[in-house]
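User: Predict the full complex structure for these chains.
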Amino acid sequence: MSRILIVEDNRTLGYGLRNNLEIEGHEVEVARDGKAGLDRARAWRPDLVVLDLMLPKLDGFQVLKTLRQEGHEVPVLILSARGEEADKVRGLRLGAEDYLTKPFGLLELLARVEGLLRRGARAASKSGPAPGENGRSGAPETDRFGSVVVDHARRTVTRHGRPVELAPREFDLLVALIRRRGAVVSRTDLLREVWGYASGAVSRTVDTHVAELRRKLEEDPAAPRHILTVRKVGYRHQD
Amino acid sequence: MSRILIVEDNRTLGYGLRNNLEIEGHEVEVARDGKAGLDRARAWRPDLVVLDLMLPKLDGFQVLKTLRQEGHEVPVLILSARGEEADKVRGLRLGAEDYLTKPFGLLELLARVEGLLRRGARAASKSGPAPGENGRSGAPETDRFGSVVVDHARRTVTRHGRPVELAPREFDLLVALIRRRGAVVSRTDLLREVWGYASGAVSRTVDTHVAELRRKLEEDPAAPRHILTVRKVGYRHQD
DNA sequence: CGGGATTTGTCAGGGTTTCGTCAACTCGCA
DNA sequence: TGCGAGTTGACGAAACCCTGACAAATCCCG
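Assistant: Here is the predicted structure of the four-chain assembly.
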C-alpha cells in the first residue's frame, strides 16, 4: 500500500520489520547505514521512514537533518536504544513525527506506522476520503468471537456486552493472537511481538498471561474454545 | 469545504497544517515564500490565508499589505514566532483578522480557522444564513456528556447547567479528547495537538491537566466515568 | 497399559512501572 | 509586586508483571 524505508543496521531487526510490514501490505526497503539510507530516501521517495538513531557512517540525527534541509517532507519514525529525553526532544525538534525506544513490541511499532501513514496519506491526494476519520488501511475497527468484542481504537473489550478489564500486556497479547487469524503463534513470536525484541523474558510468562486471558474471556477457562493451546508450539486463536 | 492558503516556509509545520486542515474537509495549498504566496492568493482566490510573518523573499507584512492594496478582502490569520505586541498591532492594522504566536497548539489554530471561515462566509452573503448559527463544516457546535455541555464557539463549559471555569489548556485538552470520539489518545498525540508542534513538554504535564479536568467535570474525580485512563497508553473520553 | 519425560496450567510473593497528587517554581501580565 | 496559568519533580499508592515452584495434562515408548 505504502512505501516504507527502514534504516537499521541490526539485520535481525531490519528483516523482522520488513517481513511484518510486507505482510501488512507495504512495499519495504532496508538500508543498513545512514549514508545508504539517505540515498534510498532521495531516490526512492518512500511514504515513511523508520530510522534508527545509532547507525554506521552517518547517525540518524544527521540523516534526518539532511533530509529536512533538502526539503523532504516524508514522515519519520525514530527508533532509539537509549531512552534519553534529550534525544527525543532533539529528534522531534529536527522534524521527526514519532519516537520509539527499544525494546519495543512489534505491535506497537506497527500501530505507529499505520498512524503516521494515515495522517500523511491525505497530503498527496487532493480529494481526501470522507472526514469521518475513516478510510483505514488494514485492520478493522473491532473484532469479535463468541460473545467477546474487541474495540481496537478504544482498547476495550466486552463480553456479553459487559466491559472486561484487561491489563496492557493482556490486551496486546490478545491482539497478537487475533491478528494471526487462526494460525499458531509460537511463544518466541509472541515474546517478540508483544514483549519486544530485546526482551529476555522466559519461562511461564506467556502462559501466565494466556491463562489470565482465558479466565477473563472464556466461558469455561478450563476448556477454552477460542484461545487454544498447541502443544510443543504455542497458542492459536479461533473465532 | 473552503479553500485555504498556507504561506509558511517551515516545511514540517506547513505539511502538518495542511494535513489537519484537509482532514477537516478543506482544500489546501501551501506556498513556501512570500512571493509564491502572493501569487497563489491572486490566482487561486482562497477563502482564508494562514500567513507566517517571517518568510523568505517577501515578509508577511508586505504580503498582507499588498493583498489589501489590491483589494483582496480574504480573511488572514497571522502566525508569528515572536510574541511582540508591536507585530500584533501592526498586523491587525494592516487588516489581518487574527493573530497567533508560536508555539501554538493545533487545536487552537483549527478553532480560529473555523471561526474566521464562519465569519467570512456570513460577510460574503449579505443575507446571512439563518441566524441559528449553523452551516458548519465539520464539528458540531456543542458536545455533551453526563451533565456537562461544551460550547465550542464560546469556549465555555457548563455542568448541571452551571458554568465551569476552564483554563485555556484545560479546554483545549478536553476538546482534543472529545474530538476522538472515544478512541484512546496517547500522551504524545495530546502534546502534539494541544501543546504545539515543537513543544518538548514532558513528564507529568498531561496528567496534571487531566486531573484538573476530572476535578472540575467528574462527579467523583477519584472514579472518573468520562475521562478515563488507559494504562501505558494515554487517555480516553467516554460519553 | 503404565511409567517416565516433557510440556503446560496454576498460584502467590515481591519487585517494578505507572499514575495521581501535591507543592514549589517559572513566566507573563497587569 | 501580586496573580493566575502552566510546568516540573518528588512521593506514595495502586496496578501490573515476572518468576519459580509445584500440580496437572499429555505424550512417548516399551
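The domain at 142-237 of chain A is CATH 1.10.10.10 (Arc Repressor Mutant, subunit A).
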